Amino acid sequence: MVTTPALSEPFELVILKGGRASIRSVVHGETMHIGTDPQTEALELHIRQQRLPERLAAWNAPEPFVIWDIGLGPAGNAITAIEALSHTTKSVEIHSFEISTVVLEFALQHSEALEYLKGREGAIRQLLDDGVAFPTPQIRWQLHRGDFSKSSHNAPAPSSIFFDPYSPARNAEMWSLENFRSLWNVVNLPDAPDCLMTNYTRSTSARVTMALAGWFIGKGVPTGGKDETTIAANRIALLSSPFDHTWLERVHTSTNASPLRGRNYERGPISVEDFARLKALPQFRSH
User: What is the rounded average pLDDT for all residues in the chain?
Assistant: First the structure.
């Protein structure tokens, strides 16, 4: 992996092993999409795993099909979704949440190197300037600025969530029990649509946190250098590989299974009390 010379900017371009470009946060010390390029990861992790084109084709509700893009970053997930759904005749809303658009502005300056942005520069500029853009006649793309973990989420309940903040070690509040419970409260309403949430982690503590917040959780597809990721849903029937008692046994012996609470990242085994709560959840109760 080769990087451009260090600059005073908080981000720098990174050339991955395959020759594609990505972005590294100098502040967080993390490279985005390190095992692959942004478009491939978005396709594998979010678009294909959630079967978005197929689910949208079957969408018959009068309301738009809603996607929450949590952690807009350099817009790799949102742009890939726009491309994948560009020929739809159904109404789609993409709600992107981001605390700062500095990385997107950096990406826009390097759209030639970051190939996934080419041809969508106008929509990105409109999103940054106006807070809303229409990259296709059927797709409305809205930007929500602010700290997602502290904000009320003024957007319709989603059918799809791309969960893509920095890692728990660098951004613990986004992976906290409180934040996942806030998300669960949105999708657990009686009239909420079926919803899938995909993310890149395979951390036991992050998975335990999602489950204790109410989510049904399962094994996600491999992507980049990771042999598995995590998928969550508001209804267990949506998961093809939900975790069962075998996973609970691994949680019980793990040294990193304590749920994440508040804004501190603390590693450790799960407590007796939290493990009892986990075993009592509907996903595991039958075991």
Answer: 92
At 17, which amino acid appears?
K
User: Exposure of 10 by Cβ count < 10 A (0-12 exposed, 13-18 middle, 19+ buried)?
Assistant: middle
Predicted local confidence at residue 8, as pLDDT: 58
71-123: per-residue pLDDT in tens? 999 999 999 999 999 999 999 999 999 999 999 999 999 999 888 899 999 99
Strands (E), the chain: 2-3, 11-15, 21-25, 30-31, 65-70, 92-98, 132-136, 139-145, 160-163, 196-199, 216-220, 229-233
Tokens of 22: 């990505």
Tokens encoding 270: 């799960």
Q: How many CB atoms lie within 10 A of CB 96?
A: 25
- Give the pLDDT score at 265: 85
Q: What angle do CA 167, 224, 117 make, to 5 degrees?
A: 85
Asked if 237 contacts 195 with a C-beta cutoff of 8 angstroms, the reply is no
Q: Which of 224, 32, 38, 51 is nearest to 117 (CA)?
A: 38
CA distance 103 to 9: 10
Helices (H), 85-120: 102-109
Reply yes or no on whether the pLDDT at 1 is more than 50. Answer: no
Q: How far is 38 from 45, CA to CA, in rounded Å?
A: 10
Walk me through the domains of the chain, giving residue ranges and CATH numbers.
34-285 (3.40.50.150)
pLDDT at 35: 63
What is the rounded distance in angstroms from the CA atom of residue 18 to the CA atom of residue 189? 44
pTM of structure: 0.92
Residue 236's SS3 state is helix
